[in-house]
Amino acid sequence: MLTLKIITENTQEVIDRLAKKQYEAKEIIAEVVETDQKRKSAQQALDNNLASVNKLSKSIGQWMKEGQKVLAESAREQVAALKEENRQLEIHQKEAEKKLIELLCRIPNLPSDRVPEGKNAEDNQIERSGGLMPSLPADALPHWELARKYDLIDFELGVKITGAGFPVYKQKGAQLQRALINFFLDNARQAGYMEIQPPYMVNADSGYGTGQLPDKEGQMYHAVLDDLYLIPTAEVPVTNIYRDVILEEKNLPIKNAAYSACFRREAGSYGKDVRGLNRLHQFDKVEIVRIDTPEHSYESLEEMVDYVQFLVDQLELPWRILRLCGGDMGFTSALTFDFEVFSAAQKRWLEVSSVSNFESYQANRLKCRYRGEDKKIQLCHTLNGSALALPRVVAALLENNQTEEGIRIPQALIPYTGFDWIE
After folding, report:
1. Considering only CA atoms, which of 109, 99, 79 is closest in space to residue 336?
2. Residues 6+ apart with CB under 8 A from 102
3. Most buried pick, 245, 295, 319, 405, via CB within 10 A?
4. Which 8-state DSSP code applies to residue 141?
């Protein structure tokens, strides 16, 4: 979340910058400033009262020694009244603090100056593109038909076992999944990322730390009895490793990679755009996470974008990178680049990665800080990206590489699959 310092010292700038995200902030920012003033006033009154109590308490002892019982008794009554007033002030202060946190959690991150203007996905800017577009016959099959033809994925069986959005991968379909996971993890390790195997469930504090909670409970599966949440991405547990931690500047940037299953309710998602692997409730993904200094975080972001580009190039997929406009950005992001690959049979672009810099927004919630060479402690910047999400990568691989003889496996994947064709 945004710091109070940023809001109170740059109020109009905050309002103007949030307008780029199509967020009307004037009213809530005014409420934040007002609530903060109430909190400060209560704290000031408490401090003054405590000073008076201390002074009166010392006087009581002195007056009792001098035999001035009337003055001493009057002072005791004043102390009792001040203590009762303090109890009320503490209640008001805690109420103001609670309301302040609730308000701050409703305010999105400020977009970077590098974010283009725009209201929705149509206004996103194509940064660059690459890869060769496949030439397929008019009767080319979409991936869900290919999955049935070659017995790779059983969507109906997933519905029987669990429900829609939980496919069952079989035979070479399952092997392809495992091959991609290992391919992504091996490349991440070679690129300097330390591998993490995180839990698939997190507590509410972790959900709060990365911005999923509060207000986004409906997007996550909740184990109510234990008050635990199935993770929507490995970003959540991995970034929370650094919650309430003070890092040393010499150890930054920290680079972690993690494979996990991901669970998303995706409420309200229907229609042709969610068919097959296009949108699932459970899917596999390798995530990369960085913790960095403010001065270096945008250099880290560029390195992460270049790394994801390397992966899609290795998979021989046609790709493009989008710089998201303000109106299409995530709540917690300061700058986001989306990667899309072209799905030739569906004749549409599919998002396979989102790489974002959150600046200090997550770090402020996490209390993730670092100690600089000058011994000053300040908030880190956090970044994360998909490298990569499997379902739509698999969809594009199956569709783009279909031939009359079968489905060709990209050269870089063959050492991981152990086969070069699905026949």
Report:
1. 109
2. 214
3. 319
4. P
